[in-house]
Amino acid sequence: MKKNWLIVIVGLFMVMGLAACGSSNEDASQDDGANSEKTLVMGTSADYPPFEYIDSAQGEEIIGFDVDIANYIADELGYNVEIKDMDFSGLITALSSERVDFVLAGMTPTEERKENVDFSDIYYSANHMIVSSTDNEMVKPEDLDGAKVGVQLGSIQEDKANELKESGIEMEIITLNRIPELIQELKSGRYDAIIIEDTVAKGYLESNDDLTGENLPNTEEAGSAVAFPKDSELTKEFNEVIKKMKDNGKMDEFIEKWFGQDTVE
Ligand code: ARG
Protein backbone atom coordinates (compact mmCIF):
# COMPACT_ATOMS: atom_id res chain seq x y z
CA MET A 1 0.00 0.00 0.00
CA LYS A 2 2.73 2.42 1.05
CA LYS A 3 4.67 1.66 -2.08
CA ASN A 4 1.67 2.49 -4.25
CA TRP A 5 1.35 5.90 -2.65
CA LEU A 6 4.98 6.55 -3.26
CA ILE A 7 4.52 5.78 -6.93
CA VAL A 8 1.54 8.12 -7.10
CA ILE A 9 3.44 10.92 -5.41
CA VAL A 10 6.53 10.50 -7.56
CA GLY A 11 4.22 10.39 -10.58
CA LEU A 12 2.53 13.61 -9.52
CA PHE A 13 5.84 15.36 -9.16
CA MET A 14 6.84 14.22 -12.63
CA VAL A 15 3.60 15.52 -14.12
CA MET A 16 4.04 18.83 -12.31
CA GLY A 17 7.56 19.05 -13.60
CA LEU A 18 6.41 18.47 -17.15
CA ALA A 19 3.58 20.94 -16.81
CA ALA A 20 6.03 23.54 -15.60
CA CYS A 21 8.19 22.99 -18.68
CA GLY A 22 5.13 23.19 -20.91
CA SER A 23 3.91 26.44 -19.48
CA SER A 24 7.27 28.10 -19.50
CA ASN A 25 7.60 27.22 -23.19
CA GLU A 26 4.20 28.68 -23.88
CA ASP A 27 5.13 31.82 -22.00
CA ALA A 28 8.23 32.10 -24.07
CA SER A 29 6.31 31.81 -27.31
CA GLN A 30 3.77 34.41 -26.28
CA ASP A 31 6.32 36.85 -25.02
CA ASP A 32 7.59 39.01 -27.84
CA GLY A 33 11.14 39.07 -26.58
CA ALA A 34 13.73 39.25 -29.32
CA ASN A 35 14.86 35.64 -29.51
CA SER A 36 11.70 33.81 -28.48
CA GLU A 37 10.69 31.39 -31.22
CA LYS A 38 7.09 31.24 -32.34
CA THR A 39 5.40 27.88 -32.63
CA LEU A 40 3.51 27.07 -35.81
CA VAL A 41 0.84 24.39 -35.71
CA MET A 42 0.98 22.00 -38.63
CA GLY A 43 -2.11 20.01 -39.54
CA THR A 44 -1.67 16.62 -41.19
CA SER A 45 -3.27 13.23 -41.66
CA ALA A 46 -0.65 10.75 -40.52
CA ASP A 47 -1.97 7.81 -42.49
CA TYR A 48 0.19 8.39 -45.51
CA PRO A 49 3.57 6.68 -45.65
CA PRO A 50 6.12 7.87 -46.58
CA PHE A 51 4.69 11.43 -46.41
CA GLU A 52 3.48 11.27 -42.81
CA TYR A 53 2.87 8.25 -40.66
CA ILE A 54 3.62 6.60 -37.37
CA ASP A 55 6.01 3.69 -37.56
CA SER A 56 4.94 1.88 -34.42
CA ALA A 57 8.11 -0.22 -34.48
CA GLN A 58 10.06 3.01 -34.06
CA GLY A 59 7.82 4.89 -31.67
CA GLU A 60 4.78 7.11 -31.38
CA GLU A 61 6.14 10.02 -33.30
CA ILE A 62 4.81 11.19 -36.65
CA ILE A 63 7.61 10.92 -39.20
CA GLY A 64 8.00 11.21 -42.97
CA PHE A 65 8.90 13.30 -45.97
CA ASP A 66 6.47 16.11 -45.09
CA VAL A 67 7.66 16.20 -41.48
CA ASP A 68 11.29 16.60 -42.60
CA ILE A 69 10.27 19.38 -44.99
CA ALA A 70 8.24 21.16 -42.31
CA ASN A 71 11.08 20.99 -39.81
CA TYR A 72 13.60 22.23 -42.33
CA ILE A 73 11.46 25.18 -43.42
CA ALA A 74 10.52 26.11 -39.86
CA ASP A 75 14.13 25.91 -38.83
CA GLU A 76 15.19 28.23 -41.64
CA LEU A 77 12.48 30.71 -40.68
CA GLY A 78 13.02 30.49 -36.92
CA TYR A 79 9.80 28.75 -35.92
CA ASN A 80 9.02 25.68 -33.84
CA VAL A 81 6.56 23.16 -35.24
CA GLU A 82 3.82 21.36 -33.37
CA ILE A 83 2.01 18.63 -35.33
CA LYS A 84 -1.74 18.02 -35.08
CA ASP A 85 -3.00 14.75 -36.54
CA MET A 86 -6.52 14.61 -37.95
CA ASP A 87 -8.55 13.06 -40.76
CA PHE A 88 -7.57 14.28 -44.21
CA SER A 89 -11.14 15.44 -44.88
CA GLY A 90 -10.94 17.85 -41.92
CA LEU A 91 -7.75 19.67 -42.89
CA ILE A 92 -9.21 22.44 -45.06
CA THR A 93 -11.69 23.41 -42.33
CA ALA A 94 -8.90 23.35 -39.75
CA LEU A 95 -7.07 25.90 -41.92
CA SER A 96 -9.99 28.17 -42.62
CA SER A 97 -10.93 28.24 -38.96
CA GLU A 98 -7.24 28.90 -38.18
CA ARG A 99 -6.92 25.94 -35.84
CA VAL A 100 -3.70 25.17 -37.69
CA ASP A 101 -1.19 27.55 -39.30
CA PHE A 102 -0.38 25.34 -42.26
CA VAL A 103 -1.04 21.90 -43.65
CA LEU A 104 1.53 19.49 -45.00
CA ALA A 105 -0.26 16.30 -45.97
CA GLY A 106 0.71 15.43 -49.53
CA MET A 107 -2.12 17.77 -50.46
CA THR A 108 -2.74 18.65 -54.09
CA PRO A 109 -3.52 22.28 -54.90
CA THR A 110 -6.86 21.97 -56.69
CA GLU A 111 -9.00 24.87 -57.96
CA GLU A 112 -11.77 23.86 -55.58
CA ARG A 113 -9.49 23.95 -52.53
CA LYS A 114 -8.01 27.24 -53.68
CA GLU A 115 -11.39 28.84 -53.04
CA ASN A 116 -10.78 28.34 -49.34
CA VAL A 117 -7.03 28.16 -48.80
CA ASP A 118 -3.76 29.32 -50.34
CA PHE A 119 -1.02 26.98 -51.55
CA SER A 120 2.73 27.13 -51.77
CA ASP A 121 4.57 26.05 -54.91
CA ILE A 122 4.47 22.32 -55.63
CA TYR A 123 7.28 20.41 -53.92
CA TYR A 124 6.66 16.90 -55.22
CA SER A 125 4.44 15.25 -57.77
CA ALA A 126 2.62 11.94 -58.06
CA ASN A 127 0.06 10.05 -60.14
CA HIS A 128 -3.08 8.08 -59.43
CA MET A 129 -2.80 4.32 -59.16
CA ILE A 130 -5.35 1.52 -59.20
CA VAL A 131 -4.31 -1.03 -56.59
CA SER A 132 -5.98 -4.43 -56.68
CA SER A 133 -5.25 -7.95 -55.58
CA THR A 134 -3.04 -10.20 -57.72
CA ASP A 135 -5.75 -12.82 -58.08
CA ASN A 136 -8.30 -10.30 -59.35
CA GLU A 137 -6.12 -7.80 -61.18
CA MET A 138 -7.60 -4.48 -62.31
CA VAL A 139 -5.28 -2.47 -64.47
CA LYS A 140 -7.44 -0.23 -66.66
CA PRO A 141 -10.26 2.10 -65.67
CA GLU A 142 -12.67 -0.16 -67.63
CA ASP A 143 -11.74 -3.05 -65.33
CA LEU A 144 -13.41 -1.13 -62.52
CA ASP A 145 -16.79 -1.59 -64.15
CA GLY A 146 -19.00 -3.41 -61.67
CA ALA A 147 -16.31 -3.22 -58.98
CA LYS A 148 -16.32 -2.00 -55.40
CA VAL A 149 -13.69 0.74 -55.28
CA GLY A 150 -12.30 2.41 -52.15
CA VAL A 151 -10.86 5.93 -51.97
CA GLN A 152 -9.87 8.32 -49.20
CA LEU A 153 -12.64 10.69 -48.15
CA GLY A 154 -12.04 14.23 -49.40
CA SER A 155 -9.08 13.28 -51.59
CA ILE A 156 -8.63 14.03 -55.26
CA GLN A 157 -8.72 10.26 -55.76
CA GLU A 158 -12.33 10.45 -54.62
CA ASP A 159 -12.94 13.11 -57.29
CA LYS A 160 -11.17 10.94 -59.84
CA ALA A 161 -13.35 7.95 -59.02
CA ASN A 162 -16.49 10.08 -59.37
CA GLU A 163 -15.23 11.34 -62.71
CA LEU A 164 -14.71 7.78 -63.96
CA LYS A 165 -18.17 6.89 -62.79
CA GLU A 166 -19.69 9.86 -64.58
CA SER A 167 -17.87 8.83 -67.74
CA GLY A 168 -19.85 5.59 -67.65
CA ILE A 169 -17.78 3.15 -65.62
CA GLU A 170 -20.32 1.67 -63.28
CA MET A 171 -18.61 1.13 -59.98
CA GLU A 172 -19.54 1.38 -56.36
CA ILE A 173 -17.37 4.02 -54.68
CA ILE A 174 -16.69 3.67 -50.98
CA THR A 175 -14.92 6.38 -48.98
CA LEU A 176 -12.88 5.83 -45.83
CA ASN A 177 -10.85 8.23 -43.72
CA ARG A 178 -7.55 6.38 -43.47
CA ILE A 179 -5.31 4.77 -46.09
CA PRO A 180 -4.36 1.72 -43.95
CA GLU A 181 -8.07 0.96 -43.63
CA LEU A 182 -8.43 1.01 -47.41
CA ILE A 183 -5.51 -1.41 -47.73
CA GLN A 184 -7.11 -3.69 -45.13
CA GLU A 185 -10.46 -3.73 -46.93
CA LEU A 186 -8.73 -4.54 -50.20
CA LYS A 187 -6.61 -7.32 -48.72
CA SER A 188 -9.60 -8.92 -47.06
CA GLY A 189 -11.46 -8.94 -50.37
CA ARG A 190 -14.23 -6.59 -49.29
CA TYR A 191 -13.11 -4.13 -51.99
CA ASP A 192 -12.04 -5.05 -55.52
CA ALA A 193 -9.71 -2.10 -55.91
CA ILE A 194 -8.65 1.18 -54.37
CA ILE A 195 -7.35 4.35 -56.02
CA ILE A 196 -4.44 6.02 -54.22
CA GLU A 197 -1.26 7.90 -55.15
CA ASP A 198 1.51 5.86 -56.77
CA THR A 199 4.13 7.25 -54.37
CA VAL A 200 2.14 5.92 -51.43
CA ALA A 201 1.08 2.70 -53.17
CA LYS A 202 4.73 1.82 -53.79
CA GLY A 203 5.47 1.13 -50.13
CA TYR A 204 2.36 -1.00 -49.68
CA LEU A 205 3.12 -2.97 -52.87
CA GLU A 206 6.61 -3.71 -51.62
CA SER A 207 5.36 -5.17 -48.37
CA ASN A 208 2.26 -6.94 -49.75
CA ASP A 209 2.91 -9.59 -52.40
CA ASP A 210 -0.79 -10.14 -52.83
CA LEU A 211 -1.33 -6.61 -54.17
CA THR A 212 -0.57 -5.11 -57.55
CA GLY A 213 -0.79 -1.57 -58.92
CA GLU A 214 -1.16 0.20 -62.24
CA ASN A 215 -1.11 3.92 -62.94
CA LEU A 216 -4.30 5.48 -64.25
CA PRO A 217 -3.56 6.58 -67.81
CA ASN A 218 -4.09 10.12 -69.09
CA THR A 219 -4.48 11.85 -65.80
CA GLU A 220 -2.95 15.13 -64.80
CA GLU A 221 -0.22 14.85 -62.19
CA ALA A 222 -1.16 15.17 -58.55
CA GLY A 223 1.43 17.45 -57.02
CA SER A 224 1.83 18.16 -53.33
CA ALA A 225 1.98 21.66 -51.87
CA VAL A 226 1.77 23.28 -48.45
CA ALA A 227 -1.63 24.81 -47.67
CA PHE A 228 -2.25 27.96 -45.63
CA PRO A 229 -5.23 29.99 -44.45
CA LYS A 230 -6.18 32.56 -47.09
CA ASP A 231 -3.79 35.53 -47.21
CA SER A 232 -1.36 34.04 -44.71
CA GLU A 233 2.01 35.72 -44.72
CA LEU A 234 3.61 32.31 -44.39
CA THR A 235 2.94 31.41 -48.04
CA LYS A 236 5.65 33.71 -49.32
CA GLU A 237 8.11 32.80 -46.55
CA PHE A 238 7.63 29.06 -47.18
CA ASN A 239 7.96 29.47 -50.96
CA GLU A 240 11.33 31.10 -50.54
CA VAL A 241 12.63 28.17 -48.52
CA ILE A 242 11.07 25.60 -50.88
CA LYS A 243 12.90 27.26 -53.75
CA LYS A 244 16.10 27.22 -51.76
CA MET A 245 15.66 23.53 -50.97
CA LYS A 246 15.19 22.70 -54.65
CA ASP A 247 18.35 24.66 -55.49
CA ASN A 248 20.63 23.45 -52.71
CA GLY A 249 19.82 19.75 -53.08
CA LYS A 250 17.98 19.41 -49.76
CA MET A 251 14.70 18.47 -51.48
CA ASP A 252 16.44 15.77 -53.51
CA GLU A 253 18.06 14.50 -50.35
CA PHE A 254 14.68 14.11 -48.65
CA ILE A 255 13.15 12.53 -51.79
CA GLU A 256 16.00 10.04 -51.89
CA LYS A 257 15.61 9.34 -48.18
CA TRP A 258 11.85 8.69 -48.26
CA PHE A 259 11.14 7.53 -51.82
CA GLY A 260 14.50 6.12 -52.81
CA GLN A 261 14.76 8.13 -56.02
CA ASP A 262 15.97 11.63 -56.75
CA THR A 263 13.81 13.43 -59.22
CA VAL A 264 12.14 16.67 -58.33
CA GLU A 265 8.75 17.09 -60.05
N1 ARG B 1 -2.88 14.13 -52.95
C1 ARG B 1 -4.21 13.70 -52.60
C2 ARG B 1 -5.10 14.89 -52.33
O1 ARG B 1 -4.61 15.98 -52.18
C3 ARG B 1 -4.23 12.78 -51.40
C4 ARG B 1 -3.52 13.28 -50.18
C5 ARG B 1 -3.83 12.44 -48.96
N2 ARG B 1 -2.98 12.81 -47.86
C6 ARG B 1 -2.97 12.20 -46.63
N3 ARG B 1 -2.13 12.64 -45.75
N4 ARG B 1 -3.77 11.21 -46.40
O2 ARG B 1 -6.29 14.78 -52.27
Kindly describe this structure.
This protein has 265 residues and is α/β, with parallel strands linked by helices. The protein contains 9 helices and 13 strands. The strands form 4 sheets. The protein has a 5-stranded mixed β-sheet, with helices on both faces. A 3-stranded parallel β-sheet has the order 5-1-6. Strand 3 and strand 4 form a beta hairpin. Helix 2 crosses helix 8. The chain binds arginine. Arginine (ARG) binds at residues 45, 47-48, 51-52, 88, 105-108, 152, 155-156, 179, 197, 222.
The number of distinct helices, counting runs of at least 4 residues, comes to 9
Low-confidence stretches: 20-35
Overall pLDDT score: 89
- Report strand %: 25-35%
In order across it, which strands form the biggest sheet?
Answer: 10-9-11-8-12
Largest sheet: 5 strands, mixed
- The end-to-end span amounts to 63 Å
Order of helices and strands: HEEEEHEHEHEEEHEHEHEEHH
Helical content band: 40-55%
Radius of gyration: 21 Å
Instruction: Report the bound ligands by name, code or SMILES.
Output: arginine
Which term fits the overall shape?
globular
Structural class: alpha/beta
Number of E-type strands: 13
